[in-house]
């Protein structure tokens, strides 16, 4: 396969495939780090770390720090444990943290590095499809506060990001599918041609996956470069997330509901947002049905009862994209054309849920 071009972000590069390890080895050789820490969870420790270590040339003293796997451990308590471990293992301002894992590891590891001794270098090596196409770009770091997603964090860029689709072989199928939701989103908000390529879920299991990941990263990077701190245009990457995050949180905190993966919740959010787009932005109805059928070809339908609606709507008020007490939505004018900061009534949101159900 041809080597994919490295992508220039604001002040760092995202490298792909074999080239990523060439760049990493060069960087480690040229930068005299006092200690190098690798942050993993139990899954990436077992399934990703051995392969990663086999790509390192040169003799370095790596310290491995392992945290529990799962969104429920993406909190300040886990950060506190990692900060303590860094201190006990003699980390200083010339140390490096390599975050080897999915979105939880890269978000939390980036936040830990950004705040330890007021900031040390970190490199992200995303190992899930979701973290490759989403968390790899844009410098967002952070953790959840209770059940509220990503409430505490800072914008801070890594030294570099390494994307190697080899790690996808270690993923269960539902995790691979979960990441595809963000790719579908990139097509809907920015690139109709890309959306059309993704309409068949079988494409995830083909050799095209590397090119598709690369295109997703390019799209997100183009948006972020125009609006690094989400003052305007960058808000469009939250398409499907206003309701999606609320749904994800609601299912996580309800013992009688089966937790949803991020992508599963966001896919529902995108169907709901597409319905709202037809009502508010005259988004074509034919395309609404196409979005619904595409999402449901990737993800199983989820049951909602009427009593769930109010609780989910209530959770939306904690969304970070809100301002002045208003809940703001990203909607579509057409495939590849999005608008942001749109107000939506609760009545319309309930109609969107009814559309999803029927």
From TrEMBL:
Q: Which residues form the 3-dehydroquinate synthase C-terminal domain?
A: 179-322
CDD domains according to UniProt: DHQS
Q: What's the EC number here?
A: 4.2.3.4
Cross-referenced InterPro entries, in alphabetical order?
Dehydroquinate_synthase, DHQ_synth_AroB, DHQ_synth_fam, DHQS/DOIS_N, DHQS_C
Which BP terms does GO give this entry? aromatic amino acid family biosynthetic process; chorismate biosynthetic process
Q: Which residues form the 3-dehydroquinate synthase N-terminal domain?
A: 65-177
Record GO cellular component, one term: cytoplasm
User: Is-annotated flag, keyword Lyase?
Assistant: yes
Required cofactor names:
NAD(+); Zn(2+); Co(2+)
Q: Which keywords, in A-to-Z order, does the entry hold? A: Cobalt, Lyase, Metal-binding, NAD, Nucleotide-binding, Zinc
- What one GO molecular function would you report for this record? 3-dehydroquinate synthase activity
Pfam families, A to Z: DHQ_synthase (PF01761), DHQS_C (PF24621)
Say what the protein does.
Catalyzes the conversion of 3-deoxy-D-arabino-heptulosonate 7-phosphate (DAHP) to dehydroquinate (DHQ).
Name used for this protein in its record: 3-dehydroquinate synthase
Q: Which organism is it from?
A: Abyssalbus ytuae
Q: Which gene encodes it?
A: aroB
């Amino acid at each position: 396969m041809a080597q994919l071009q490295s992508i220039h972000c604001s002040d760092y590069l995202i490298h792909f495939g074999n080239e990523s390890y060439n760049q990493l080895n060069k960087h480690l050789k040229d930068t005299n780090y006092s200690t190098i820490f690798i942050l993993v969870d139990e899954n990436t420790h077992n399934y990703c770390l051995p392969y990663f270590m086999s790509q390192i040339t040169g003799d370095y003293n790596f310290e491995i720090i392992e945290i529990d796997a799962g969104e429920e451990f993406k909190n300040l308590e886990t950060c506190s444990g990692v900060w303590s471990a860094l201190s006990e293992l003699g980390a200083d301002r010339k140390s490096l943290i390599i975050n080897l894992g999915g979105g939880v590891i890269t978000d939390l590891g980036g936040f830990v590095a950004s705040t330890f001794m007021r900031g040390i270098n970190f490199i992200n090596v995303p190992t899930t499809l979701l973290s490759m196409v989403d968390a790899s770009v844009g410098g967002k770091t952070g953790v959840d506060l209770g059940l509220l997603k990503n409430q505490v964090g800072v914008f801070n860029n890594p030294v570099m990001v390494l994307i190697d689709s080899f790690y996808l072989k270690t993923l269960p199928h539902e995790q691979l599918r979960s990441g595809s939701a963000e790719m579908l989103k990139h097509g809907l908000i920015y690139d109709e041609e890309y959306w059309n390529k993704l309409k068949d879920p079988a494409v995830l299991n083909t050799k095209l996956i590397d090119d598709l990941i690369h295109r997703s990263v390019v799209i997100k990077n183009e948006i972020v470069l125009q609006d690094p701190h989400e003052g305007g245009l960058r808000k469009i990457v939250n398409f499907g997330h206003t309701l999606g995050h609320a749904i994800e949180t609601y299912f996580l905190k309800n013992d009688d509901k089966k937790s949803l993966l991020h992508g599963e919740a966001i896919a529902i959010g995108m169907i709901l947002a597409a319905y709202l787009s037809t009502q508010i932005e005259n988004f074509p109805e034919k395309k609404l049905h196409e979005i619904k059928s595409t999402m449901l070809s990737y993800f199983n339908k989820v049951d909602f009862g009427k009593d769930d609606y109010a609780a989910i709507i209530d959770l939306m008020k904690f969304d970070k994209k809100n301002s002045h007490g208003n809940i703001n939505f990203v909607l579509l004018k057409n495939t590849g054309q999005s608008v942001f900061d749109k107000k939506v009534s609760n009545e319309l949101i309930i109609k969107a849920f009814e559309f999803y159900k029927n």
